[in-house]
Amino acid sequence: MTLLTFPPSVIFSTATSACFLHPRRYTGISSQNFGSISLVSLNHLNNYGNKVCQNLISCCSMPIDNSISSSSQSADSLFCSKAYWVSKSIIAWNVDTGDGDCFLYASKTASLVVRNDGIQGQDVKIKLQEDYGGLPSNVIEKFPHIRYYRALNVPLALDVKGLLKCQLAVAIFSADGICRNATGLQLPGVIDELFAYTGPLGAVFSEGGITLCLWAPTAQEVSACIYKDPANGVPLEIVQLGEVNGVWSANGPKSWEGCYYVYEVYVYHQSTLRMEKCTANDPYSRGLSSDGRRTLLVDLDCNALKPEGWDKLAEEKPGLLSFSDISIYELHIRDFSANDQTVPPDLRGSYLAFTLQDSAGVLHLKKLSNAGISHVHLLPSFQFAGVDDDKEKWKSVDTQLLENLPPDSDEQQAQITAIQDEDGYNWGYNPVLWGVPKGSYASDPNGPSRTIEFRKMVQALNRIGIRVILDVVYNHLQGSGPFDTYSVLDKIVPGYYLRMNTDGHIEHSTCMNNTASEHFMVERLIIDDLLGWAVDYKVDGFRFDLMGHIMKHTMVMAKGALEKLSKAMNGVDGSSIYIYGEGWDFGEVAKNSRGINASQFNLFQTGIGSFNDRIRDAMLGGSPFGHPLQQGFITGLLLQPNDHDHGSEAVMEHMLSVLRDHIQVGMAANLRDFVLTNCEGKEVKGSEVTTYDGAPVGYASSPRETINYVSAHDNETLFDIVSLKTPMNISIDERCRINHLATSLIALSQGIPFFHSGDEMLRSKSLDRDSYNSGDWFNRLDFSYNCNNWGVGLPPREKNQKNWPLIKPRLADPSFKPQKRHILSALENLTTVLRIRYSSPLFRLRTANAIQERVRFHNTGSSWMPGVIVMSIEDGHEGQPGLSQLDRTYSLIVVIANVCPSEVTIASPTLRARNLQLHPIQLMSTDEVVKNSIYHTSSGSFTVPARTTSVFVEPRNVTKVEE
């Protein structure tokens, strides 16, 4: 064949070593043009050589050892990718080229192999030149973790797009021609520069038919297999897709609607060093067959998929004047009804359980809604791994047998864990496809049932006054590689969607395959997915799992895209969609190592909420990762110590005063700049109050940026952690009042309160600290209020065994188990404090300035009374200078939390001679203890019972009464 003109840096080879070739059908491969570079025809590459080394060693870009075989050299060097092709013209590599030469190698058939004298099997060999100016600023901004790498220039005449479909490697040779280093390449940088795309993707429906669009710029071939059936049978047809600039597409008839399809993508995969034919679902799937075997061709705008009144749901949604008016209730879809005997058996654990107006669970939600809960946060409801969609395959245990076992037995957990991967339970934080409702919650996992029933769930919740938040898990994926059943994105553009370490291996700091939102098309997929849920399912908010592993830019772009949605154009009001998440800063993204990430501190002034772990840890004590008996402000530190060594009395008193500061900052919405008097008597900002490791406590710019909480699905339930940390000899009545204290402080704080389902019912998981896969048994909710699930056996061994010596005596002690009256009291407590929260806008201030002007903390400084928090919220008077009037009913509110085991009387001179009285909602409650709270007008002192939160209000237009 004739070779066209090409740059002198390009060297052609007819080497055809097949050491790492997969036995594909390569006969008759035609020549491929790369601009002015033409690859020779390779007609004899169907020979398969030595087996692929499967040992992924940690050191990949390494010197060549003459003593090892060429097969081992290839495995050691090319199974890793320590060089980065960061832009069309630059490759970055952390090596010293010295006085030698560096070359880029490409093989369309994945034939590269490292031998003593260099790399062989290439179709093209390209000389690279070092740029001694280093990497440009735009590259460093995108890849800050490689800022000090060497910059190697790629010849400008090269057609890079074609080369990206090949196996690629770089190697450095010394001046005497010895190969010193060789490695593969990471490609996201150059892919983003050349193939960033904003056009249609997925299955696009029109009057004329259906168009399939797939972004796969590194693929050599793509076809779609169209099936009539969800699982079995041969394809109706196999359609070859054509490519335009990395996007593959094909047109099909309207008759495809209701059929299923999968893509076959022929692409080089760095994990095997082979060309692979990967079978994958569409990343933009909007429907699936059972267990995600195939993508359903479904038009979500079809009227047949819409419940009656669906298109008008935006007009029926509960009102929301401000994000400060939000209160969140976190709930797992299966937990909600799996144990509810008022729900028909075939609907338990399903979307449709939420549509039953008179079930015990729905009646419970109505109570919470009437009290003030505005949003239900549903744990993952997209297609996830870990639960088979086919309910017929589920295994179960004999619960009657388990009921008869001792409360501290290890037999319950043994039986549950024996089937934990084959039952119907999992939290769902193991995503497979983000954009499709989970099939196991639907009556039929095939066809459109999951879409229709999910919509009915959202509609039903909206109609009882509750908006819906989805828990989204964009930080990681369950599967990776070319063969994993759960792998999707990594089959289509290998090495792009998942974040790699500097050796080219997938990062797993999230416990799974971390995704890389710093890459353009990953960010685009996330935003498109959010828009799909918002428009097609009319959800009202999103909670981001491990949000700190997502880039801040992605979160800000997502927020902006959602805010642009309108009722007129999209059928939803995007301005009312709230987003928040876990802003933890750890792993490879910590300290902005991969770009500015969406961590707590970085979200300042974005309007995006993050969980406030400071108030949680201060109230409970320690942290989820510390000693389980470490006490906090409400669990007995100093005031009722347990057997744990907390230090001297002076140390404990200081700790208690510091924790009070943390709580007070949290009650002021955890604002960075809120000024208060700290435990040393100094005026400080929220950011100047610090945690044990020196991190600022306050970090938010506005109340909407703070999610205050004391328990969530992770770690022990509130009741369980209180039962663990408090002394063993206190009564169940006392433990229940501590539970009430915790929820009341959260409910009455500025910012957005968040409650784990069951907080209001003393929910227990038998002290399980991580019940993600602990089955219905340990996760049960009882809306009949007869049982809180305490003492159902030792929690599963895997995550809890080290604490069994602490857990066992508590579970065995019958005095720890609450009775129905305790559960009902807890429910009334939460509904009471929620009703108080919504009785005045002063509890829901909308700006940082309003909080700074109106919120004050008393009982501060070094002479404080231990165990008591006093917060006042002042309002103005209409027509008078100073503060504006927000509340028509009350001019002043005082909240006093007494965590002491005895009654206290505390004076506040600044609150003397006010017309304060106990809040009428507390006066009308059945809590006889709180009714003993007294305000003494002349002294400005308050008497508050043990372990009680009392709310005093000053009604307007009431003549002051002398004491």
Notes on the structure:
It is a single chain. With 963 residues, the chain is α+β, with helices and mostly antiparallel strands. It is 22% helix and 21% strand. The protein has 24 helices and 43 strands. Strands 22-23-26-29-30-31-34-35 form an eight-stranded parallel barrel. It has a seven-stranded mixed β-barrel with strand order 4-5-10-9-6-11-12. Strands 15, 16, 19, 20 and 21 form a five-stranded antiparallel β-sheet that branches. α7 runs parallel beside α22, α17 (718-725) packs across α18 (732-747) and α18 (732-747) packs parallel to α22 (820-837). The longest helix has 19 residues, at 649-667. The radius of gyration is 31 Å and the shape is globular. The relative contact order is 0.07. The model is unreliable at 1-75 (pLDDT under 50).
Q: Largest sheet at a glance? A: 8 strands, parallel, barrel
Number of helices: 24
Q: Could you report the average pLDDT, rounded to the nearest whole number?
A: 92
Task: Count every beta strand, where a strand is a DSSP E run of 2 or more residues.
Answer: 43
Oligomer: single chain
State the low-pLDDT regions, or none.
1-75
What helical percentage do the residues reach? 10-25%
